[in-house]
Amino acid sequence: MSICSFAVNAQFTLSGKVVDSETQQPLEGATVQIVETNLNTITQVDGQFIFQNIDVGTVTLKVRFVGFTELIQSIRIEKNIAINVPLIAEATLHEEIIVKATRAQENSPFTFSEVDKPAIQKQNFGQDMPMLLNWTPSVVTTSDAGAGIGYTGIRIRGSDATRINVTINGIPYNDSESQSTYWVDIPDVASSTQSIQIQRGVGTSTNGASAFGASVNLQTNSMNPDPYADLTIAGGSFNSQRYTARSGTGLINKHWTFDAKVSKILSDGYVERASSDLTSYYLSGGYYGKKTILKAITFGGHEVTYQSWYGLDEATMKINRRFNYAGAIYDENYNVRYYDNQVDDYHQDHYQLHFSQKLNTYWNANASLHYTHGRGFYEEYHQGDSLKYLGLPDIIIGDSTIEAMDVIVRKWLDNKFYGTTFSFNYEKDKTVLTIGGAFNQYGHAKHYGEIIWAEHASNSQIRHHYYDGHSQKNDFNIYSKWSYTVTSKINAFVDLQYRMVTYETAGTRSDQTPYQVDEKFNFFNPKIGFSYSMAESSLLYSSYAVAHREPNRTDYLDNEVKPKPEKLGNLEVGWRKKFNQHSLDVNYYLMHYTDQLVLTGALDNVGNPIRANVGKSYRTGIEATATIKLLENLNWAINGTWAVNKNQDYLADESSSPKNTTIILSPSLIGGSQLSWTVVENFQAVWMAKYVGKQYLDNSQTEELTLAGYFINDLRFSYQLHPKGMKEINLSLLVNNLFDVAYSSNGYSYYGTPYFYPQAGVNFMAMVGIRF
Predict the structure, then answer these.
(1) What is the CA radius of gyration of the chain?
(2) Three-state SS string across 523-554, please?
(3) What's the whole-model pTM score?
(4) What band does 29 get if pLDDT is binned at 50, 70 and 90?
(5) Hey, what domains does the chain have and what are their CATH numbers?
(6) How far is CA 459 from the centre of its chain?
(7) CA distance 227 to 249
């Protein structure tokens, strides 16, 4: 009996030496981890490492070192063991090095989720990127057209797209002036995406707009060593269609690759006339050496969408949920007809050049150049526009004076965005250091409106400019991230960022009133955190981060009172644990804002939301994510958010006292579920469910101005075939809103009247993917 007890309780030592397999030279600073316990250590100058007090059993050893292939090895522990660990030098650098500087790592004390390429492609039936991210924690999505194609939106922890930093390969994607993200401008970017990391809260330092609710970091396709070609065709409800063709050369002469993609997406939309005609492309060419990566990428798109951003009042929704006010032309008897070209028409082209170099065993460097050109317009039929507001004199015909007339106008935006990003990464012993930054300029930006048709002749010329403006914005930031392994279990993290922003814009509004803005901001954004590796593969972490954010263009132009910059202090405390077949992530967050610019519920004349400073406010909550293997062929991924989102200094009017009201469009409960069942080999069924709680449509917390909670269920089937002469044929079917729930996912209030954006009832998309 005592012998058995000794065998069970005995603990041993696992030690070894990590070397270069070719030269047999020791590798100092390699990371060695026991996966089951999450214990890790760093090799010494002679390549040695040691773990003590290891229980009897089988452990998985993971060894990583920059420039070498990761080694994973199972080892049976029944006595003290000393091993030699040879690592093989990689033939080429990994492209993940390009985005590493702006991403959270495994032991980072921040809250994040990752979506890999297989998960993206399974859900990519042609809907915009926000809809593909709908199943990640604390996310609420919406679609103006009601079916996920065209203009879509995303909110994370209640924060809208203007507060979510987005980068593509480390290059800022948010529009510099609005700070928003228009995914419709780069349709089907998901087909060219390798991975996505979503950091909730402030997160680590990144480039571009401040992360005031979250950051979304996309990495486009990495090098594929094998040649390939594939074709995807999808179609379904509302005449929605997707056609995507991709191809790649594979590795040529061990160093070169070239990839290409073209895509076409069409849809009539659920909302009347809310059509979309979207075209996109992606081209890349790269050189991959043992110490060098040089990659050129160009991608972009052209979108033409019929406007559907006005929403519906409750009375109209009861009559016709699909009604669309856009383009309506009424006669004197209120009979209606519609202008056939009430569209948003925009081109956007991106060019990126990335260079990565391994300098020595411990240092690597990255530098990128980028250029984006965007240009396009809203075309609208206006009834009874004032000639004064069109910058035209009254028209006198005989004894009659015409002061207003019908016109067709185009509101143009033409801009260029260019700059550079860089990072230097160091990894040795217990230290990981990143020094990075960017300088970007949004320049030569033109805002102007032109009249392309008028009801009455006047002294103006065709394409008369009735307003004009110009803008320039410079954005410089530099950051340093330092991670230090204090002990085998404790890791400390410090991140310091300085950001300088200058913004100039001047011109005439569409109502002929002048404006001029000349602002400069200097922001210091420190972050500090710790992570603690507990037993049984779990990580406890905590961090506190500070972020600052400048107002956007409409904040200046739509408010009589000059808007103030915002400040955010973000506390994150979390626990991540991996079991043999399950995982669990739980975190608490507190985001305390000073002078937060929140939505008032009103829209400006082109559908942009109007915001105002509200003094003190906060968002706090608990997020939980779990993956559970119920059976060998049945897996369940669930997440939930319980939140409180409050304005502490909200004033209904100047004479009222501050009220503690709920922040607009910030639900207190969000839940998501994906139940995956492998029915038979190559045939999967996934039941996806989403719950979003009640939301208020303004900051007064008026019960009459609310967006009702909703619970939606989708069902996805996929079947893979492997015929001769092809790598794969994938057949998929997606049924959205399976139980035909009549719901709205977004809304606003206008002078006390609520307006809603209705979403489609039950609808489907079928897809065929052929890969050669």
Answers:
(1) 28
(2) EEEEEEEEEEEECCCEEEEEEEEEEEECCCHH
(3) 0.88
(4) confident
(5) 2-87 (2.60.40.10), 228-771 (2.40.170.20)
(6) 48
(7) 5
CB burial of residue 747 (10 Å; 0-12, 13-18, 19+): buried
When the pLDDT of each residue in the chain is averaged and rounded to a whole number, the result is: 91
Closest to 29 measured CA to CA, from 41, 13, 12, 14 = 41
What is the secondary structure of 435-503 as a DSSP string?
EEEEEEEEEEEEEEEEEEEESS--SPPTTEEEEEEEEEEEEEEEEEEEEEE-SSSEEEEEEEEEEEEEE
More confident position, 558 or 318: 318
Q: How many CA atoms lie within 13 A of 406 on its CB side?
A: 9
User: What is the amino acid identity at position 76?
Assistant: R
Angle at 216 between CA 215 and CA 222, to 5 degrees: 140
Q: What is the C-alpha separation between 66 and 94, in angstroms, rounded?
A: 9
* 507 and 515 Cβ atoms separated by less than 8 Å: yes
The first and second tokens of residue 748, run together, are 């606003």
Contacts 24+ apart (CB under 8 A), 245-248: 246/191, 248/224
Q: Which helix (H) or strand (E) holds 738?
A: none
Helix (H/G/I), strand (E/B), else coil: 589: strand
Q: pLDDT tens digit string along 561-592?
A: 889 999 999 999 999 988 877 889 999 999 99
CB 738 within 8 Å of CB 760:
no
pLDDT at residue 317 is higher than 70:
yes
- How high is the pLDDT of residue 607? 57
- Name 765's bridge partners: 236, 734
Tokens of 123: 């859900």
pLDDT number for residue 238: 98
User: Which residue bears the tokens 């390429």?
Assistant: 117
Question: Span 628-639, mean pLDDT?
Answer: 94
Measured at the CA of 771, the angle between CA 765 and CA 772, to 5 degrees, comes to: 160
Is 135 strand, coil or helix?
coil
